[in-house]
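Final report, Chapter 2: Outcomes

The project's central promise was a pipeline that accepts a single protein chain and returns its three-dimensional structure in a standardized token representation, suitable for archiving and comparison. That pipeline is now operational. To close this chapter, we reproduce one record exactly as it appears in the project archive, with the input sequence first and the structure output second.
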Amino acid sequence: MGFHRYIQSALKWLTPGIGLKRWLLLLACGIVFLSLGFSFLLKQSCTLSGLFYYLTFQFIPYGLRVGLLGLAGVAAVVIALFGLNRALLKPFTEADTEMVVNAVYRYRQRGRGPKIVAIGGGHGLSVLLRGLKRHTSNVTAIVTVADDGGSSGRLRRELGVLPPGDFRNCIAALADNEALTTQLFQYRFGDGNGLDGHSFGNLFITAMAEVTGSFERAILESGRVLAIQGRVLPSTLRDVTLMADLRAESAGVSRVSGESNITEANGVIKRVYLEPDDIPAYPEVVRALLEADLIVAGPGSLYTSVLPNLLVPDVARAVATSRALKVYVCNVATQRGETEGYSAGEHVAALEAHVETGLFPLVLVNDNLNVDFDAPAGVEMVSPDSPPDAKYRLVAADLVATAHPWRHDSNKLARVLLDLIGGQ
């Protein structure tokens, strides 16, 4: 029965209207021509009579015969393969303006790119990923699971899932193109009973976690839906809460619980930490860090996006152990409620107050401060200043996005990082 179905399936390729038979016949003719030309090249004295005299072009001089047969064979094979390529792939692609071979070539080139691990969360990590995916598909985004605000916080509290918001943004950023599916993934409901404020992607990931039985599997399958260039991993699978000790203007040191409450408290952050603090890292995260060529922390909110990942003990140890080039990307502008008035050196000092000193030997900063934007109170361009005795190397470059000067330009940032790898 299995062999019979195999024969039936094979014969379907010869069904009228599929458009393959003509190319298969042309391919067969090309192979015959090449075979004749090659046989004549090996045996010059072969002489046939009768009908075969004409079928094998014996009436043409030897040298011209070999050349014509070879040329006709090569042309027929090339045209036939081109036609088969179009006939077979047309049902799967509508890329009329772009040859499939170019898409395959770019895919292979990205597959040979460096292994890069990006640590963070929020919009800053998404900006970085958009730039990196154009150069390599070996990108791993490590995302914090401490988010408790907005749609993610509601789903986390009501359904007990890990917050999907930052994962959704990273998956959309790594998508191969900004197609309708990607826009749908980022769509946010504006009204509706119970739907107000939720994004479709958050609901999709949450439903996928229920269907597949695990959050990590949901992220993997969601990435496949959008055909992302890379992968997105949670720093840990445990439910954690980001805590902060901060000094308020009207009181002493106070303790704030929850990522979303830290910036809203509008105090000076002294330190942040996780509860519980002895959580294990997701094993794939450790593996990715140890195998990386480049590890990038930031850009993104220092205290609420970057540090929550590095506060997972296994993650910090894996970064320290890895032989990769390690770069901390300082934000272009300060952030209200977190880094008001911080210079680049103060960003690094805050980072190293929480993790091992010298964990990131390179610090990438923006040196284009001649930008004009209507900055809200507490937001200003980060000055590229650092202490003269700093144990890290400061790398300065123009990283500003023209349209949004308080953010990084994804292409500029990716190019500088890749140049740093090439300059090792």
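Archive annotation: The chain is about 45% helix and 10% strand.
This record, like all others produced under the grant, will remain available to the consortium after the project formally closes.
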